[in-house]
């Protein structure tokens, strides 16, 4: 069972990322806001895709988060089980916890205001911690991953810092907290917090997909060597 999970874990990761990405794209294309506006990543937050009663395909988006989160947990479990180092096992556990936080976002969309706020904070906090730990693991020299993936993790941490800091500095009337405001101010043409949120999410999905592709290639190579 353990060997099978380690072998098929990367495929689970790729499938999980793909499901989340496709669910978001399809939901965004069908979206029509309160004022009839189309969805745009420049001034709509990620959570608005799952807002019941506003987003036409909110159920699809939330289901995508649930299924994608479960599959990413499977991928991260394969990393934890297959790692030869304590740092790798910790990375896998942190990834599993982050995947669980994604599931919570799907279970508690923005309509469930208080629960969604907690789930979103756990998700973004988990992403930042996961990326920071991975970068340290890679640049310490004992991780079975190339430094370019470590550099992408560093970029993800910087993107998270920008997401949390820049809206407060450059657009204080439309910060991250505005997403959770029941009576937000008028939506700007460019909502910096929403745009940076998409940068973080897109970067995280791409990074996890590249991790899965790397592990898949490594697994295929190990299988060939064993059969030779």
Please describe the topology of this protein.
Elements: H1 2-30, H2 58-82, H3 86-107, H4 113-139, H5 147-170, H6 192-227
General description of the model:
The chain is mainly α and 228 residues long. The protein has one domain (2-227). Helices cover 71% and strands 0% of the residues. The protein is globular, with a radius of gyration of 18 Å.
Helicity range: over 70%
Number of strands: 0
Class from secondary-structure proportions: mainly alpha
User: In percent terms, what proportion of residues is strand?
Assistant: under 5%
Biggest sheet layout:
none
Could you write a compact summary of the structure shown?
This protein has six helices and no strands. The protein is mostly helical and 228 residues long. It has one domain (2-227).
Could you list some keywords that capture this structure?
0% strand, 71% helix, mainly alpha
